[in-house]
Structure formats: structure tokens, C-alpha cells
Amino acid sequence: MRQRYGQEFADKLLFYVFQRWQPATTSEKNNFNAYFMSRLFSGVFAVANDYDKYEVEISAILKARGLDSEQLPF
Known about the structure:
Oligomer: single chain
Radius of gyration: 12 Å
């Protein structure tokens, strides 16, 4: 994501995710990937001007690395 969107976007995104991080529930601990991605996409929604465009592209980046956002419960 840093290569695609730049340092400023990636830093804002991860800072937002870090600020909003909450302890995981038992079910979330059992699926950390889903837990992390739900937090990540809430950050994308907060920092991206065109969420729909970013959501599709970021989903593709994550999927290429073995994290499939289509399996998320939202």
C-alpha cells in the first residue's frame, strides 16, 4: 500500500488503526486476519477521499498477499 499510495497515506492509515485498536474478543482472537482487516478498512474509510476506489484496490493488494477481504463478516 505504501508503494501504491505513498508514505503519507500509509502512515495516516496505520496511525488511525493504531489509535482505534481495541483488545480483541475471544472470537476475534481466533481469526486475527479478519480482526486486523476490519480495523484496517475502518482506517481506509477514515483517511481515503474515495473509499470505494481504495477499498477495491486495497482488497486486491491484500488478496495477493493471502488475505481475502471477501471472507470478512461485514
